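Worked example 3 (structure in, sequence out).
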């Protein structure tokens, strides 16, 4: 890719996803209370997701939104997998009204972001109760325990230990796969996906890592598996689901989650971006 050509960062809108802009369940059903007894907590949360128009990312020319005025803000980039973790959780817990999404253009970043908001100059960052918090894995735990809605972190000690182990492993997983892009990709990346496949066998009431309910573990992995699947298939013709039935089912179920759909990046953009990052000739 030439120096002046930039990948256009747009949130992915699935063609089958029937709306012109980022619509989730198209309408809030006013009679939900009468149906409440028939729906699970998950259905209930997803039914509360309101239509959300994603705004244009703020760039070097944009004014800073007021800081610490009582609004809770989640600073993201629409294509950042780390930010996507927190974005999915915020959607899943139905926190659209409680946590305002503030997209940042990382290619043309506003100076005030580093100077006034987050000194590390990274996304995601959460502005809450007069402080700024970063680091996506810490943030998903923070949002889960400091905001309303059912917890996505287990109480059961066995599940809790397994969850912590897998959340910690997510950094290793990412490192193995990202490193493989510069080496013998399929051979080096394969064992990382086998690790996920084996982990998904642990609780047989799946399809998720801790059983039948989505948890923070799934949320930690979703954005990265999304990108790796697109890139490995698009460039190496490597299907990460081949011979991995649990991972196949996990991806299938994850893709049904309304809270996740508007956070997805177009696979073509992933292939283009990752090709420019990892396949550049030196
Ligand atoms: N460890 C951080 C990583 C965050 C991160 O690397 N974000 C990238 C975007 S995906 C970023 O802000 N990059 C800007 C930069 O490196 O200057 C987390 O988990 O939140």
């Amino acid at each position: 890719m030439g120096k002046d050509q930039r990948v256009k960062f747009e949130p992915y809108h699935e063609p089958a996803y029937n709306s012109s802009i980022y619509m989730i369940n198209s309408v809030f059903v006013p009679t939900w209370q009468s149906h409440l007894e028939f729906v699970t907590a998950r259905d209930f949360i997803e039914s509360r997701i309101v239509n959300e128009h994603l705004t244009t990312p703020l760039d070097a020319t944009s004014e800073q939104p007021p800081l610490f005025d009582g609004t809770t803000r989640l600073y993201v980039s629409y294509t950042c997998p780390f930010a996507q973790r927190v974005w999915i959780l915020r959607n899943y817990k139905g926190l659209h009204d409680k946590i305002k999404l503030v997209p940042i253009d990382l290619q043309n970043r506003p100076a005030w972001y580093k100077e006034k908001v987050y000194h590390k100059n990274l996304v995601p960052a959460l502005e809450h109760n007069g402080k700024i918090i970063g680091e996506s894995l810490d943030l998903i735990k923070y949002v889960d325990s400091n905001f309303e809605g059912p917890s996505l972190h287990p109480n059961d000690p066995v599940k809790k230990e397994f969850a912590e182990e897998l959340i910690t492993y997510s950094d290793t997983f990412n490192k193995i796969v990202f490193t493989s892009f510069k080496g013998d990709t399929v051979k080096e990346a394969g064992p990382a996906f086998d690790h996920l496949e084996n982990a998904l066998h642990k609780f047989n009431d799946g399809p998720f890592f801790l059983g039948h309910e989505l948890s923070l573990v799934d949320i930690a992995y979703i954005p990265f598996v999304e990108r790796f699947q697109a890139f490995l298939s698009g460039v190496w013709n490597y299907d990460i689901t081949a011979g991995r039935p649990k991972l196949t089912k996990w991806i299938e179920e994850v893709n049904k989650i309304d809270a996740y759909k508007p956070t997805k990046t177009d696979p073509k953009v992933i292939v283009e971006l990752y090709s420019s990052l990892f396949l550049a000739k030196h």
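Notes: DSSP finds ten helices and four strands in the chain. The first strand starts at residue 72 and ends at 76.
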